[in-house]
Amino acid sequence: MTGRRGRLSSTGPRARTSTMPPDTTTRPVPTGPGPVRTCVGCRERDLRSALLRLVLDRSGASTDEPRLVVDAGRSLPGRGAWLHASTRCLEAAERRRAVPRALRVAGPLDLAAVRTVIEAQAEEHG
C-alpha cells in the first residue's frame, strides 16, 4: 500500500468514547427542516431553534473585558457558542471549559448571566 491508508474501524482500542455519562433522556438527532448546531455542553446535535446562542459583547463601556451574553435574536455579530437551556449542559460546558474554547477566547468567562437566563426559563416552563 503505497500512499494509501486503510480506514480505521469505529471499534477497537482506539475508538473514541464519550466523556459524558449516559443520559436516560436521549434525544434523537433532528432530521426535520432547519439548521442544526452542536451543544458545547453535552455535544449533542439539535435544531438551532432549541439552543441558546452565546456571544461576546465587546460594545460595553469596558472594552478590555468582553462580557458573555445570550443572543436571544440569534443575530448578534461575532462567533457564537450554542448550548441547551439546561443546567446539566451548562455545568458540563463549565467543567470542560467549552464556552471560551468555542468562542476562541483565552482565559475563563463569567457564565453567571447564562445561568440566570437558564434558571428563568426553567421557572417559566416548570
Automatic annotation (TrEMBL):
Domain of life, per lineage: Bacteria
Compositionally skewed regions (Polar residues) per UniProt: 8-18
Region (Disordered): 1-40
Residue ranges with Low complexity bias: 19-38
A Pfam family that the UniProt record links to this protein: YlxR
Every YlxR domain range: 37-108
InterPro entries, per database record: YlxR, YlxR-like_sf, YlxR_dom
Name the record gives this protein: DUF448 domain-containing protein
Species whose genome carries this gene: Cellulosimicrobium composti
